[in-house]
Specification:
Structural class: alpha/beta
Strand content: 5-15%
Number of helices: 9
Largest sheet: 5 strands, mixed
Helix content: 40-55%
Shape: globular
Order of helices and strands: HHHHEEHHEEEHEHEH
Strand order of the largest sheet: 1-4-5-6-7
Number of domains: 1
Radius of gyration: 20 Å
Length: 235
């Protein structure tokens, strides 16, 4: 994907702003680590603490705004940190729990297409319940009206988190369908980069919970929507 000069400017500005803000506002918590300090040295430990703090904020301060900037080239709308909705039908909540139970027990294999159709059939059945789902990290609307929602995760998510990731994706879809049963909604877990490069991404322990072809986007196939090129940043 070729970036325009305006995109390059906006991305550089985003990165500069994020780094300058971190440099100006970094205030480490007072923690006494006598063993680490004696082993590594005070300066190395302080540097490690700063880099760790910066890394934990990459999602909201860098990955999200950069993704939105790049996605605007190919999508009708691109936003970050938005709500999927606040209503889910009781029957949809029941079906979500049923899907989760069956996946956890390995009674079924994940199939995003089937799961969406199950939710579509019951999206407005029974009483509607008010919910507060996790906010969507990146929400894209394609020119054909289809919706693409991304939950950006760390490059090596913990195995224990996969169940909650899956539930979040299902709840997003159910919220959208409750408002519009005909909506073409797609929900994904996005991994911004491949820590195993040049080998393929190999965090396949999530295979029993996620439909890897339809729900997981990592570096290259996340780059179908946006891909960061190497930029020369002078902060």
């Amino acid at each position: 994907m070729s970036l325009t000069k305006q995109q390059i400017f906006e991305i550089e500005d985003t990165l500069k702003t994020a780094l300058r803000h971190k440099f100006s506002n970094y205030n480490p918590e007072p923690v006494t680590m006598p063993f680490h300090t004696r082993l590594l040295g005070k300066d190395r430990l302080a540097l490690f603490s700063f880099i760790h703090s910066l890394n934990t904020n990459f999602g909201t301060s860098i990955f999200e705004p950069v993704a939105v900037t790049l996605a605007k080239t190919n999508f009708k709308e691109a936003h970050s940190q938005v709500s999927a909705g606040s209503q889910i039908s009781e029957q949809a909540l029941f079906e979500i729990q049923k899907i989760m139970d069956n996946l956890t027990a390995a009674h079924i294999a994940p199939s995003k297409a089937n799961e969406i159709e199950i939710l579509r059939r019951v999206c407005q059945k029974c009483e509607m319940r008010t919910v507060k789902p996790t906010k969507i990290d990146i929400a894209l609307t394609a020119h054909d009206g289809s919706l693409h929602f991304f939950d950006i995760k760390t490059a090596k998510p913990n195995k224990g988190g996969f169940k909650e990731f899956k539930r979040t994706l299902l709840e997003w879809a159910a919220c959208v369908l409750a408002n519009n049963p005909q909506a073409a909604v797609n929900t994904y877990i996005a991994i911004p980069y491949n820590p195993y490069a040049p080998k393929p991404y190999s965090r396949w322990t999530m295979a029993g919970m996620l439909d890897l072809n339809a729900e997981l986007k990592w570096r290259k196939n996340f780059g179908i929507f946006w891909e960061v090129k190497v930029l020369s940043i002078n902060c």
